[in-house]
Amino acid sequence: MIPIEYFLVLSAILFALGAYGALTRRNTIVVLMSIEIMLNAANLNFVAFSSYFNDVRGQVFALFSIAIAAAEVAVGLAILLNLMKTRETIDLQEIHILRW
Amino acid sequence: MQPIEFAWLIPVIPLLAAVVIGLLGRKMKQGGGYIAIGASALSFFLSLLVVVSVLDGSFDSADGIVDGVYEQSGTWINLTSTYKFEIGIYIDQLTALMLMVVSIVSTLVIIYSIAYMGDEGGRKRRYYTEISLFVGVMLGLVLANNYLEMFIFWELVGLCSYLLIGFWYHKPSAASAAKKAFIVTRVGDIMFMIGIIILFTTFKTLNFRDLFSMEVSGGDIGLLTLGTFFIFGGAIGKSAQFPLHDWLPDAMEGPTTVSALIHAATMVKAGVYLVARSFPLFAQTPETLIVVAIIGGVTAFIAATMALNSPNIKRVLAYSTISQLGYMMLALGAGGYLFFNAMGSEGYTSSMFHLMNHAFFKALLFLCAGSVIHAVGTEDMRLMGGLGKTMKITSFTMLIGALSISGIPPFSGFWSKDEVLAVVWNAGSLSWVFILLFVLGIATAFMTAFYMFRLWFMTFKGEPGEASAHSHESPRIMTVPLVILSIFAAASFLVLFIGDGFGAVVFFGESHALQAGELLAETFSDPLTYASIIVAVSGLGLAYLVYYKRRVSSDVFVSTPLTRSLYDLLLKRYGFTAGYDAFAEKAVYGFSLVVDWFDRKVVDGIVNGISFTLAVAGNYIRRIQTGHVQSYATVIIAGIAIILVLLYLLGGLR
Q1: ipTM over 0.90
Q2: CA-CA distance, B49 to B99, in Å (whole number)?
Q3: With contacts defined as CB-CB under 8 Å, which chain A residues touch B633?
Q4: Is the CB of B641 inside 8 Å of chain A's CB atoms?
Q5: Which residues of A touch B620 (CB under 8 A)?
Q6: CB distance from A71 to chain B under 8 Å?
Q7: Pick from B131, B136, B145: which is nearest to B10 by CA?
């Protein structure tokens, strides 16, 4: 039995990596991937606690979360395609028309 | 059922007529003029019933009559059990007299209007609406049973006069005259309101019945004096008394029929009526009564001097109205002072008698002047002359009016003016002030005769003037009211000789019943009577010599520098017009500029300052919004991290 702390530490590391990537990378696809990492860090937590408390609900939530993440990626990539068509860039530094 | 129980219909009928004409007049014949005539004639008929029931004694026996006053009233506003306002009607002999005078004069004036306003086209509907409203609210004012109700009608009368003086509002002079009438009388109205508030706070009621039967004592006398003084202030404005007289000559910009109505029946009579109605209160405050008498006497004199050389036929009549109203006030003041000193109250009776006579002869004079203006198309008497040949009825009826107002016996003006002067003379034994006022009154009588006959000779006698070439007699619908009014103007004194005389009906305190013989003996054994006849005849004679025989050239009045400057001073109305204009321009406009500056700089400054600060601050703060999604996300994550750390440190997570 692996202690719960290991999972939590791994999950925290993954979440921090994802957050760092989401905040710093200029390529929007990489940012999307970073967000996926953050989501999976949360899923890991769900599953870990589900096993720890012997409660199946955590795993159900993780499955929901994965399904929603898939939908989210589909929407995100569709936006990116349109962005590429109209602005010919997916660099987040250059996408800033919603400002003062 | 007593006919008097329907007295409340008297003001309601013309008011309804005003509504009907206002809504439907466009489709009616004469713009609804016949409806207006019918309504005021119906009011006249009801007033006649009221007068009859006052005269035949059934007034004393009908139900609901207390102390000779018939009253119908209901609670209108109930503030608390002690503070409440009523609405209702209050009929005593004074009310009956006023109802009679107002309704008969206005009926005749409206009949006359059919011809006089005949070619006004689409404006006739507005004219008849406003004039019906005017008559209705004046009758309402006369019938009111408390000061609040009276004040409401009082203001409506002012509104109607504003509308009618400015009837031809496309003329700038008429528009400004209307504004002047409204604003100047407003000064008086504010004083009236102050007076009402003083009475209400002191005596907790505004009902005539309660106020008049009240025993006032101690410190309340001072407040009562103040209250009556301010109420008189309202009368000063409405009745065009000095120093608020200046609006009335300008009010001549309205149609002549309106002038006749304002001068004879409504508006200016409201001020005198107010003082007469409040006489039980005034009679307890001698200080106010002296003020009333002084204002009245001075007004009578000053207005008469201004009438001496005015070239405008209507202006002369306007000044004479002011002057005669001054007489009425003088009689009320002096009479009240006499009553206060337990020397009888003939002043009240004589003032009301003069009011009635004045209503008839002034309406007559104005309608005659209207007939003349209708014929020659100008108001300048220097362009008239010789009209007596072509306008026989007008010139004859106007002669009767002029004789009456001048106080030539046996016309009615003589009897009332003589009584007024006699009252002032009697009051002279109490105070030297009244002796002075008597002298002013006598001088006014002289000037009245002079300027009225100057007017008459200049208009109807002598060589035909420029404008009299195509003159013609007015249509019958105009001359018939003239004839009826001239009968009244000549013969209204007969009420002195019917039964116990006028004094037995309209009186204050004790009645002054006099049989015809006694009255004649008393009048013609008094040297004062001859004095007033002599001054009237000499005024007439002087006008005859100067303006008819031309024995004395009228140039003598302007030949020397002194008389020339006096002449100009009179034409300038003693500079009152210029003075008021200068006051408005310098003081009011100056003050307005200060207020304007305050509004612009201080009020707007604060508002603009706040918005400017916010705009500048916003200009800096908006730069936070860069459009970079990642920087927003950074802030969010940093914020959550800080919250988590804080929660941990403060123990919220444990």
Answers
A1: no
A2: 11
A3: 22-23
A4: no
A5: none
A6: no
A7: B136
For B361, half-sphere exposure in the C-beta direction (CA atoms, 13 angstrom radius) is 32
Q: What's the pLDDT score for residue B553?
A: 67
On whether any CB of chain B is under 8 Å from the CB of A98, the answer is yes
Residue B377 predicted with pLDDT over 80: no
pLDDT digits (tens, 9 = 90+) for A34-92: 999 999 999 999 999 999 999 999 999 999 999 999 999 999 999 999 989 998 888 88
Q: Who's near B563: CB < 8 A, 6+ residues apart?
A: B556, B557
**Is the Cα torsion angle B399, B402, B405, B406 positive or negative in sign?**
negative
Q: What is the pLDDT of residues B38-47, one digit of tens each?
A: 888 888 898 8
A97 in B contact zone (CB under 8 Å): yes
Residue A93 placed within a domain: no
Distance from CA of A35 to the nearest CA of B (A): 12
> Residue B169 is encoded by which pair of tokens?
């509002």
The residue among B386 and B153 whose pLDDT is bigger is B153
How far is B57 from B512, CA to CA, in rounded Å?
A: 17
Residue A35 lies inside a defined structural domain of this protein: yes
Name the 3-class secondary structure at B394.
Answer: helix
Cβ distance of A92 and B630 shorter than 8 Å: yes
**A-B contacts at Cβ under 8 angstroms:** 27
What integer pLDDT is reported at residue B209 of this predicted model? 82
Q: Distance, in angstroms, between B631 CA and closest chain A CA?
A: 7
The total of structural domains in chain A comes to 1
The boundaries of the domain holding residue A76 are 4-87
Please report whether residue A99 resides in a domain. no
A94 contact residues in B (CB cutoff 8 A): none
Over residues B102-109, the mean pLDDT reads 88
Region A18-31: mean pLDDT is: 90
Rg of chain A, C-alpha, whole Å: 17
Say which of B629, B634, B637 has its CB closest to residue A92.
Answer: B629
Mean pLDDT of chain B: 83
Q: Is residue A12 part of a domain?
A: yes
Residue B623 touches partner A, C-beta closer than 8 Å = yes
Question: CB distance from B61 to chain A under 8 Å?
Answer: no
Q: How far is CA B93 from the centre of its chain?
A: 21
The CATH number that applies at residue A46 is 1.10.287.3510
Q: Are strands B69-78 and B65-66 parallel, antiparallel or unpaired?
A: antiparallel
CB-based contact (8 Å) between B654 and chain A?
A: no
CB–CB of B2/B63 below 8 Å?
yes
**Two tokens at B412?**
């009615």
